[in-house]
Amino acid sequence: MNSDSQKPPGESGLYNRIAVLRAERGISRQQLADTMDVNYQTIGFLERGDYSPSLKLALSLGEYFGLPVEAIFSKTPLPSLSQQVYGPGRARTK
Amino acid sequence: MKTDLLLLGKRIRMASRTRRRWLVGLVYAGLAAMMTGAWFLDHWHVSCIYLIGSGLVVSQFFLGGYGRGGLVKLFGEWDQRPKSMPPQRSSPAQKMPEGMNDERELHQCDRAHYQAYQWFAITAFFLPMYASPIFLERIIHLSADQIVYLFYGGLMAAVILLFTLPQSILLWTEPDMEEPE
Questions:
Q1: Of chain A's two ends, which shows fewer C-beta atoms within 10 Å, N or C?
Q2: Which of A28, A38, A60, A65 to probe the B interface (max B CBs under 10 A)?
Q3: How confident is the model at residue A1 (pLDDT cuts 50, 70, 90)?
Q4: Which residues of B touch A52 (CB under 8 A)?
Q5: What is the pTM of this model?
């Protein structure tokens, strides 16, 4: 299965796309942490799925990335963004 | 939690969990050694004050939590706005002050306190069974003096653990800290 987060989520039981979205926008953990008013360690915990954010933080992340919360966090593995944009057939690589 | 321990003007890197566990081990080994030494010195009659003082010093300069020193950040929420004020939208001017906890760290602090004081509650529950004079005198054959010393030692250890255990649990359980990118 092609997904942004192939690994099972950590302690939180949530899959997320924070690392992909952050890389896509070229921002560091520290920059994101400063914007979200959290420590950069917390961004690492979020990306690894070791921490479930509060509703306030989840909504702030959604607002920052310009996406709904369900596009960032999910209880089931998230499909890769390329797969979502181009469909499963065209996104497949040889 | 802070990555560096500031001690006598020197910064000691403590990002690794192994190092933090060594520190916790050394702190409690040191306190246990001091308690033993104090027993031989004056049977804790006066030295108990110094022992509790040492616990406070250790908490202040090594473990943290109740002051600016130590590895654990000050317990407490960073958002100091009065509760009556409406929630603000995030503004660039409002930054989290250095050395304050964010929501995950506050959650971890709460968990550490819960775990630490849970042990105190369990001990307090079972203590009356074993601390009865019948059990201590007739079953394990302790004299009245020994019972008093046992009570003294237990009380002192409890006081020291009361203000060092939550921080120690945090230092012991938090994983290795990552370097900023």
A1: C
A2: A38
A3: very low
A4: none
A5: 0.79
